[in-house]
Amino acid sequence: MYVAVANKALKYPHAKSRIAYIGTTKAGAARIASSAAYRAKDLLALHGVTSLSFYVVTCAARQRVKSWHKLEVGLILAFKHLYGQVPKCNVKGKNQKWSDELEYFTRSRLENVLKKYET
Asked: For residue 23, what is the enclosing H or E element?
């Protein structure tokens, strides 16, 4: 999965954040470039955004668990908790609630991952 970070802070209801999108690809890290190119038009259309950086976020594999999917949902929900809404270009997660993501990741760890991309 990956995080798209804008060159400037974007306004959210609770605070500002440079994170514009949190997403995953079906084919793993090798397909991030094409997925990023697909999203770039929407991301660069945001007011004042002239450049983007993409960062890969990984987690340990677990048997019979799509851990990358749990991580994506967990990060989106943690972002929503911290900033008041999902990232600007995310559609997924607007009406989503916590299910079992906190069994795999702690909320503080998810929030620390998000805060890492604020600088």
From this structure: strand 16-23
At 36, the amino acid letter reads A
**Secondary structure letter of residue 88 according to DSSP:** T
Q: How far is CA 8 from the centre of its chain?
A: 16
What span, in angstroms and rounded, lies between the C-alpha atoms of 71 and 67? 6
Band of residue 115 on the pLDDT scale cut at 50, 70, 90: very high
Helix, strand or coil for residue 44? helix
Task: Give the span between the Cα atoms of 78 and 15, in whole angstroms.
Answer: 13
- What are 83-98's pLDDT values in tens digits? 999 999 998 888 889 9
Cβ-Cβ contacts under 8 Å for 107 (sequence gap 6 or more): 78, 81
